[in-house]
Amino acid sequence: MSEASTAQVPAQRFTLNAPPPVRPLAIAAGTVVVAAVLLVLWGSLDLPVALAGLAVLLLVLGVALAVAALVLAARLRTEVCLDATAITVVHRRQERSVSWREVTEVSLAHPRLSLITGERTTSLVLVNPRRPDNPVFNALVDQVRQRLDGNRGYRDLPDPSPDLV
Question: Which of 10, 24, 57, 91 matches a 20 to 30 Å C-alpha distance to 51?
Fold first, then answer.
């Protein structure tokens, strides 16, 4: 494929998200419920103030765990844009771009897809935040393969005719 034919391929965007933090949110919810029950018992049964302090501590810890889980899950989000000339990665508000011509080596060792350039400082590493069978990451890997093949002029060979076999 020539450079002119790779320019016809539209840009594609992929979003790599972490799985939802279900376990930490469930633990946080349970902690907050226990704290609320302790506060109700303290108020209605006239129990010691130490129990109210424990309830407030559990309440604060539960809310802090929920906030931390949501923030960390959001920070693992990565946007990848593939166009005819380059791959652009946006992660934690930082944007890095590498042209297809600069890529000299590609390695895939789950959960990392590494696009290595001549200068190690410009290399890109994409991390799959989910399981190995993540369809979004697999589609991204397939598109990277196609873009690199197109940039280098590789093409699929036609099947040999039955007469030659």
Answer: 24
Tell me the C-alpha to C-alpha distance, in Å, between residue 23 and each of 104, 135, 137.
41, 23, 23
Query: How confident is the model over 56-68, as pLDDT tens digits?
Result: 999 999 999 999 9
Mean pLDDT across the chain:
88
List strands edge to edge, sheet with 103-109.
103-109, 112-117, 124-127
Residue range 8-57, pLDDT digits in tens: 678 999 999 999 999 999 999 999 999 999 999 999 998 999 999 999 99
Q: Spell out the SS3 assignment of 57-86.
A: HHHHHHHHHHHHHHHHHHHCCEEEEECCCE
N-to-C CA span, the chain: 27
Q: Where are the alpha helices (DSSP H) in the chain?
A: 3-6, 22-45, 49-75, 135-152
Residue 41 · residue 51 · CB < 8 Å: yes
CATH architecture of 3-18+77-152: Roll (2.30)
Find the mean pLDDT for residues 138-153. 89
